[in-house]
Amino acid sequence: MTKSIKSAIVIGATGLVGRELLNQLNRIESCQNITAVVRHEDSALKCLEKVQQFILDDFLLLNDEDVNGYSHAFSCLGTTLKKAGSKQKFHDIDYEINVHFADLFESTDTHYLLISAMGANIHSNFFYNRVKGELEKHIQSLNLQCVSILRPSLLLGERSEQRSLEDLSQKLYQKFSHLVPDSFKYKPVTAAQVAHTMVEAAQTQTEKFEIYDNLRIQNSK
User: How far, CA to CA in Å, does 153 sit from each of 72, 186, 212?
Assistant: First the structure.
């Protein structure tokens, strides 16, 4: 089941984890071709020699030909209810686009990796967690070669856009982080840790389906 990362396609490439993932993939010797699907050209990505940008205004227009031949597909795409503007728009992004992307790899030999969320559950009382749970359920129903799902807690790092609640949470965590034990399962993780876990999973996972919980991500160095 394990195989080296020879070529990769990434959605959510300009987000907090996506950028870090591209940096890490760019340093892998075996990985010669990295495609970042973006809505607008990103000048910061031009310094990564192996990364090519595929500019597409609507990710739902991605087709089988666009994603053909990649050894690994990474989805780092996600938003917040506040940024999306409504529950429907949040669902359109976090569920519909991710579902469409995953569907394209059904019955192929591509390893599919998704960033979900801690608390993802189709029965959750929280809309955000419920949507993540519905997404995971759909992914599991597909005939995919290999699937890795990551469930991080709060993500630490500098985002290109403001997320007030997350920014406040980060500041509070930084102030009291010395009181949080390493074994605390809700402990925030960095974008680098999440990206590293994705890369490790891509290279070493032997099971057809595996979930990487927050504690596991915390231990990623």
Answer: 24, 6, 11
| CA–centroid distance for 204 within its chain | 17
CA separation for the pair 213, 218 (Å, rounded): 9
DSSP 122: T
Task: Tell me whether residue 115 is in a domain.
Answer: yes
Question: From CA 180, how far away is CA 182, in angstroms rounded?
Answer: 7
Could you tell me if residue 113 is inside a domain?
A: yes
CA-to-CA distance for 221 and 196, rounded, in angstroms?
Answer: 7
CA–CA separation, 60 vs 165, rounded Å?
A: 29
**Against a cut of 0.85, is the pTM above it?**
yes
Alpha-carbon distance 27 to 48, whole Å?
9
Handedness of CA 21, 22, 23, 24 (dihedral sign): positive
Total of domains in the chain: 1
The pLDDT tens digits of the residues spanning 82-131 come to 899 999 999 999 999 999 999 999 999 999 999 999 999 999 999 999 99
The two structure tokens encoding residue 76: 């780092």
Beta carbons within 10 angstroms of residue 68's beta carbon:
12
